[in-house]
Write the structure tokens for this entry.
Amino acid sequence: MTLRIGIIGFGARAALWRHAHRPGRGAEVVAVCDVSERGRADARAQLGPDVVLTDDLDQLLGLGLDAVLVTTPDHLHHGPTVAALEAGTAVFCEKPLGISIEECDDVLTTARRTGTRLYLGHNMRHMPVVTLMRDLVTAGRIGEVKAIWCRHFVGHGGDYYFKDWHADRSRSTSLLLQKGAHDLDVIHWLGGGYTARVQAMGDLAVYGAVTDRRDRSEERMADWFSLDNWPPASQRGLNPVVDVEDISMMTMRLDNGVLASYAQCHFTPDYWRNYTVIGTEGRIENLGDGPGARIAVWDRRHPSGLPEPDDVVTVPAAEGGHGGADPELVEEFLRFVASGGPTRTSPVAARMAVAAGVLATRSLRGDGRTLDVPPLPQDLVDYFERGQVEL
């Protein structure tokens, strides 16, 4: 059996098609839906003359596809995902699941009601640096986890997030949600729980003062990205609307008592994530997050000062984007479409990452007070934790 796959939204993350398109090996991308001429032209150039191109979602879903990859901008995840689920077409929804809690809950409710398979594109659950840290935690190497800190230095922030729709809160809610959804999901995964209470602060500290703006809706990131776009205040051609924060920090208490913090800055010169996980018998910390990075382990007492780690795990090289995570992500999705079963990514976890980001944004833009994150109904949690199977 060959799975017939469609792509909805042929932008940057649509590059995942390369891992889903394997003619003669069980899956083939046969159709693309994109409302822009640029998107359809890019799809034709990359996929060739045989791919069906359309700007009509109903036409795409009427082709009887086995699955679709929803790789639209964030504010357009909800509509196509719900429509595909209603049509009985399995869905890969790129993260975040939505830009509001209500959108996320509607998607999960629809997936359960229709029985259509739903998969979330949280590729960092396949990133070697994260999976190695997760292995150390679950093996009990540092005892019981009590705290997690994440610092995210987004050195490409001005190019990646302030020259297109990401900079507009009506399309992304905030970068604490849009960009942070990855890290919040990883914090939850490493901590073994979901955020129950959250507080945040932040600011539009640099890019709001850049007055050189223009509409880049027919451009792609490759058209403007350059390491020469430095320092941040000298950026040119930002999105006409820039109303998301470029520096944010949030603190969380997970539902199992673990304390966590997440700090994100979009005007640093370097671009990487640093996770520190502290347990009752030691701590781990990644130094770099790509191939060759080190995960340092301290699991005995040391004198004052900065000691050498007691152990070091090196992150291996792997083929494919995000340290080899992207091909593994798509491989898991195709297996899930074909035969079901457990998956490393989780619709429930995706919703809880969005919920944490939404409430953190509300705190940040309010008076910084601590807010409670609403839980999902237990029957929905049970359905997805059983692998999307009813009792």
